[in-house]
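request received
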Amino acid sequence: MTFENYIEAEQFSFDKTEKDTLFLSLLNDLHKHHLGNSEEYQKISAGFFQEDERIASMADTPFVPVSIFKNRLMKSIPEEDIYKVLTSSGTTSSVPSRIVLDKATAALQTFALSKIMNHVLGKNRLPMLIVDSKSILKNRKTFSARGAGILGLSVFGKQHLYLLDDEFKLIKSALQEFAKKHNGQPILIFGFTFMVWQYLAEAELDFELDLSNAILIHSGGWKKLEAMAVDNDTFKTKLKNKFGIAKENIYNFYGMVEQVGSVFLENSDGYLHCPNFSEVIIRNPKDFSVQPHGEEGLIQVISLLPKSYPGHSILTEDIGVVMGEDDASNGWKGKYFKILGRAKKAEIRGCSDTFNN
Amino acid sequence: MSSENNQKLITAFSTALEIDASQVIDDLKYQSIPEWDSMSHMFLISELEEVFEVEIETDDVIDLSSVGKAKEILTKYDVSF
Amino acid sequence: MKVIVPEIQINAIEELPVFQHTSFDFETADERIIGFLNEFSRKIIREASFKQAPAFIALGFWLRKSNLRSMVSDRIQLIAQGPFTAQPLGTIFHLCPSNVDTMFFYSLTLALLGGNKNIIRVSSRMDDPLVFRLFELLNELLSTETHQIFRNYINIVTYERNDAQNKAFSERADARVIWGGDATIDQFKQYKTKKRVKDLYFADRVSYSLINTTAEQTDTAMAQLVKDLFNDVYTFDQMGCSSPHCLFFVGTEENNTTYRNYIYKNLSAMAQEVYERDLSSMASFKFNKATDDLIDDAVSSLVRDNNYLVLSKVETHDIPHSCGMGYLYYTSLNTLDAIVPYLNEKTQTLGHWGFSEKELTALNAVCPPHSVDRIVPVGKALEFDHIWDGYDIFGELIKYRSVRSK
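response:
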C-alpha cells in the first residue's frame, strides 16, 4: 500500500496485523529517509540503538529524546526547503522546541488533524465556543501551546465565540446570546481541560444553556484537576448533569508540537486512541524494553508523517500505560492508552549548588 | 590489671558491635559477622579510644582486624592484657 | 535570616555572638577545642538515628581527637620550632554546598582548630532530617557549661539567596571559604571585602578513576572493586566534584575490554539493587546526554544494557561533564602516562586501582603541576581530606607572627 493510500484510509480502521506490516513498512521508508538526511538521527540510531537500515519490528524503532528539539534544529531537508519552523514556547523559563517543516509536511500536519477531527465532527463546520480569552492569541509573549491549540482547532468551527474576556471573566451576555441561538443544536466546544472545568463546568448561569448536541474537545492534561480530585468521570458527569453534554461526545486529546500527526483522541472507553498513522510504545525506564499492556513506562510516540525532520519516533517524558488494542467498545481499531503524568525530574545537586540555580 | 582490661575490651566490643559478650573471643574477625562491618568498626575504634584513653593511629585503625589483633595493637599504646 | 546554631533570634547581624564576643580565647589547636570536637564525635557515633547514615558516622569518626591531632601535627611541630607563633586569622565566613550535608562541619572544624570564629551559611534547601539532628546535637553540646564558650565561635545561619546578607558577611570576614563552584566564586569576588581578606575558593572540578587491567586479580578483589566504584560513582548521584566522570582502563586492549564488560555487568547490577532513585529520571538524563554526546562526536559507542549505568567511549581529551546518576565516560590507555593529555586545571581527584607504589609515584611525577589535587584509592574518592583542592585548609586559616629576640 502506498503512503497516500494508507493515510487516506478511514481513521481507526487498521488493526495490529496491519500496523505490524503496512505501518512498519512505511515506517522503514521513513527511517531510511532520516538516516540518509539527518546526521543527528543517523548517529543516534547507530550509536545508541545499533540499528541499520531495516527495522525488524516496531519495538526496534530507534527514538530521539523529546528534549532534542529544544537543544538543536533537527532537519532532514535542505535549508532552502524550510517552509516554516514551529515553536512551542510553553512557559517563559523553558526553551522552546523548534520543529522544521517543509511544505509537504506542513500540509500533512493540517491533513492529519482534519482527518481525525472529521472522524468525530463530520464534515460540517459547527458554531464554536472557545473556553478561553482571545487575549491569549494577541500577546506574542504568552502565545503558548494553548494559543496554538486554539488556532489549530478553530478551523473546524465557525462563528467563534471566546467565552472569557481579557481579565478571564465569563462574558455572560455573549454566552446568553449564543445559547438563545444554538441551544440544543450541534456545536463544537474547545478548551483546555482545566479551563473547561473552571469556567464552564463550574459556571453559575442564570439562563438555560442546552449543550445536549454539543461536542466538547479538550486537552492539556489532568494535573491541575487531579489536585482538586477531579477525574475524567467527575468531569464528564458534571458537564452532563449541568448542560446535558453527552458523555460520548466529550473527547480529551493528547498531542505535541514535536510530532506531526500524533493526535490521540479519547475513545468511548475513556482512553487515548492511536490513529492509523501513529503508534505508541511504552518503554520500561529500567532498560527501555517494551512494556506489556497494563504496565506503565515512558511513552514513545511514532508517526508516519514527519518527513522534514527526524521526529517520527520520540521518547516523551510522560508516563503512560497501554490499556488495550483493537477492542475499543466504539469499534475503533488500534492501540489505546492512558497518561499517568509527567516523569518527575529527580533533583540532583552538584558541589556548585549553593546559591545559584 | 590485665583481667580488668580484658573485661573493658569485651565490654567495648559488645557495646560497639551490639553483640553478646560471649561472642568476643580472640578469633573474632572483622567482617566475619554482619555486626562487625565498616560502620560499626568506626564506632568500635571510638569506643576503644574512649575506654582505654588512647589515640589510635590511622594505620592501626585498618590493622585492627580481630579481637586478638586489638589486644596486640592496644599493647603498643601501653595497655596490658 | 535564621540562626540555627546557637538557637537565638537576632535583628541585625551585629548581634551574632561571633561579632559580640570580641576576644580570641584559644591557641592554635587548643586542647579545649580538640576536647570539644572529640565530645561531639562521641555524640555523633553514639546517635541512634545515624546508625544507617555512613556520611554522618564518617564525620563522627573524622572528629576523633586522634584524627584531629594527626591532621594538625605537622603544622604544629613546625610552629613549635619557631621563630614564629601562630594566631587565628579572625572571623571566617563559610559558604557551604547543599549536596553534601556534612560538608559544612569539615570546613568549620579546620577553621575552628586555628582558633577562628566562624559564620557558616548552610543552604536553605537542606532538607535531610539527619542534618537537623546534627544541629540539635551541636546545640545540646553548646548549652553545656564546659562548652558554652563555643557559642561565640560557631554561628550557623541560613537564608535564601540574598545579596545584602552575602555582602554584609563579606565585608566583615577576615577570610572566606567559598565552596560552591565557578558561578558562586564570580559572585563573591564582586563584593567589597577587607583589604587583607583571605579567600579559599573551591571551583568546579572534575575527577576520574584509573584501573590497572594488567595484574591478575582474585574474585574477592574484583568484587571489592565493584563496591568501591559504586561508592565513588553513585554517592551524591555522581555530582560531587570528586565523583569520577570517566574510567581509564590501563593495559592491553584485550584486558581493558574484559574489565570494561565485567564492570558494566557488576556495577549496573549493584546499582539496580541498591541505588534508589527515580528510574524515569535516571533513564531520561542518560538518554539525553548520550544522544548529545553521540551527535557532538564526543563519544563513539556506548555500553548499555540497562539504564542504571551507561559507559560511553570518549573520543576527546576534553572530557564532557557527566549528567550524573551513573553516566560514565571511559577509554582505554596502554600506559599510565597516556593520561596526561586528559589532565588540566579542572582535574581534581584521580582514583587508582591495581597500581604499585612505584607506578603511583611515576603518575604523580607526570601530572602537570596545575592539575590533579588528589591521587587516592578507588573507593575513597569522596572521603574528605584535610588537604583539599590543593589547600591545607587548617594551615591557610592561621596567621604567623615572626618573633625574634635578636
